[in-house]
């Protein structure tokens, strides 16, 4: 059985526009997202292990330091936990043939953006428009 070599990022970027989201590119992003998903799950397990090993003994300064460490661990867990559904959604878009296309405009998101943020759902223009609208909703 022959294992096909996956292209490097530079090779993806050098592909013609007509090849956008071809099988090779989709496989590249699928493997990247699956790898990131596994990394996140392992990191969450490590963080939860650190919390469970937290020692409650010590003086007031030790307790204050431990509380700050726990706050930081919980923030990391929250951040990683929010990433998992985004990864799963991107994998589903690959499966359904919608990966790489903006969920608002159906325009290509673009390889450079996807290489930086494989979970991207919007083109840069659509994302900027969304971010400009968000402050209006927060003020209301």
Automatic annotation (TrEMBL):
<feature type="zinc finger region" description="dksA C4-type">
    <location>
        <begin position="102"/>
        <end position="126"/>
    </location>
</feature>
<dbReference type="InterPro" id="IPR037187">
    <property type="entry name" value="DnaK_N"/>
</dbReference>
<dbReference type="Pfam" id="PF01258">
    <property type="entry name" value="zf-dskA_traR"/>
</dbReference>
<feature type="domain" description="DnaK suppressor protein DksA N-terminal">
    <location>
        <begin position="25"/>
        <end position="94"/>
    </location>
</feature>
<keyword id="KW-0863">Zinc-finger</keyword>
<protein>
    <submittedName>
        <fullName>TraR/DksA family transcriptional regulator</fullName>
    </submittedName>
</protein>
<feature type="domain" description="Zinc finger DksA/TraR C4-type">
    <location>
        <begin position="97"/>
        <end position="131"/>
    </location>
</feature>
<dbReference type="InterPro" id="IPR000962">
    <property type="entry name" value="Znf_DskA_TraR"/>
</dbReference>
<dbReference type="InterPro" id="IPR048489">
    <property type="entry name" value="DksA_N"/>
</dbReference>
<keyword id="KW-0862">Zinc</keyword>
<dbReference type="GO" id="GO:0008270">
    <property type="term" value="F:zinc ion binding"/>
</dbReference>
<keyword id="KW-0479">Metal-binding</keyword>
<dbReference type="Pfam" id="PF21157">
    <property type="entry name" value="DksA_N"/>
</dbReference>
